[in-house]
Predict the structure.
Amino acid sequence: MTEIFLDIETTGLSFKDNHRIVEVACIETKELIPTKRIFHKIINPERNVPDEAFKIHGFSTEFLRDKPKFKEIADELTNFINGNDLIIHNAPFDLPFINHELKILKKDILSKNKVIDTLELARGKYPGVSNSLDALCKRFNIDLSRRIKHNAILDCELLREVYIYLLDAKEPKLSFDSKVEQKKSSKKILNYSTKVVNPSEEELKNHDKFLKSELKKNYF
């Protein structure tokens, strides 16, 4: 199964207040193992960036002025997602922003049915405590030293690690036979071949010669 980890940065908290996306990133995985396919764009929001937002992600109005607008990257983004499952931390924030941009362009919006919200998943496992991405990384001892500012591509990478822990998988497992399962366990196991290959007569003679030569070398 292919998954897409997605994150955005914006000029503010709500598209209803005319806030826009300034950064969008996606990382593709298969069975949670990165495929090395990455989508990452910094975007001109076509408006000023408030100081509060600048302090969070570090993108200034001047820096974003010559960057592509969302309409220039929209098709590339939706083609990258390509109907696959989206894994987002706090999806009720990110998804409406993206769908608002797509609606402006009269394009098909992303379906809620294809979204896994890791914040909701974390709240179910750890109720009554902070389940921000930072808090979850600290809970699972995931290195946060690179996260000086909010950064969409880095947050996608961190979210993948967090999601693995939330699933109690810890590390994605390779399986060569998805039909074979351990009894009383949901973990997949390797299906080793039981085929016996008999050596030829010539191979047996060569093996016998090798053993005799080794015995002479080491003991005589």
Summary: The CA atoms of residues 3 and 85 lie 5 Å apart. Helices lie at 51-57, 61-64, 70-81, 91-104, 118-125, 133-139, 152-166, 201-219.
